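User: quick one, sequence for these tokens?
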């Protein structure tokens, strides 16, 4: 139970923050999220998670000798780091224009694929659907707050990344 709580809280929080960032920064994407149904919203979250994997690297120990196109021969027992971000941006997996947010990319997945962002195989994240549902509901409610304007309050460094969002209600 503790493992589930720890594994699920920080990651989902990060997803919500990252998705909110994209939605505030990109009005067209925000409108699409607000106007779209469940599938569109899941598709958008899925794409944001593909571009911004919360868990960026997975470690695995190779169980048998393998030959790979990128790294050549890897003997059994080697510990390898799998770059999830690079994997998600691989055109061979993601298709054309991998840096572009395309909610239909995963085939309109109702509860998202996240590509490799939830891992794969027997240890694939069991909380994938829960986290996407939580994020979708939270963001839907957040964006429905009656706000005359969503404005950005610049941080002291003036960089986009440090900007804080503030909601001005009428
Ligand atoms: C955006 C949210 C989340 C992300 C990005 C995420 C990501 C991941 C990834 C990449 C793994 C695979 C780790 C590996 O293969 O070594 C994993 C495993 C796991 N996740 Fe998540 N997770 C999220 C949300 C959640 C939630 C909400 C829960 C629980 C309610 C959860 C529980 C777990 C557990 C228990 C494992 C271990 C599974 C196993 O080893 O068999 N995660 N998660």
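Assistant:
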């Amino acid at each position: 139970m503790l493992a589930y709580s720890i594994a699920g809280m920080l990651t989902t929080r990060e997803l919500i923050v990252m998705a909110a960032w994209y939605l505030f920064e990109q009005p067209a994407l925000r409108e699409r999220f607000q106007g779209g149904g469940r599938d569109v919203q899941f598709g958008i979250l899925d794409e944001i998670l593909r571009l911004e994997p919360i868990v960026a690297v997975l470690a695995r120990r190779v169980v048998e000798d393998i030959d790979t196109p990128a790294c050549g021969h890897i003997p059994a027992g080697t510990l390898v780091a799998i770059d999830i971000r690079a994997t998600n941006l691989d055109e061979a997996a993601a298709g054309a224009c991998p840096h572009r947010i395309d909610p239909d990319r995963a085939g309109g997945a109702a509860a998202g694929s996240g590509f490799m962002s939830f891992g794969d195989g027997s240890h694939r994240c069991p909380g994938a659907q829960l986290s996407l549902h939580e994020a979708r509901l939270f963001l839907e409610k957040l964006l429905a707050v009656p706000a005359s304007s969503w404005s950005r309050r610049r941080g002291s460094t003036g960089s986009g990344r440090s900007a804080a969002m503030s909601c001005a209600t009428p």
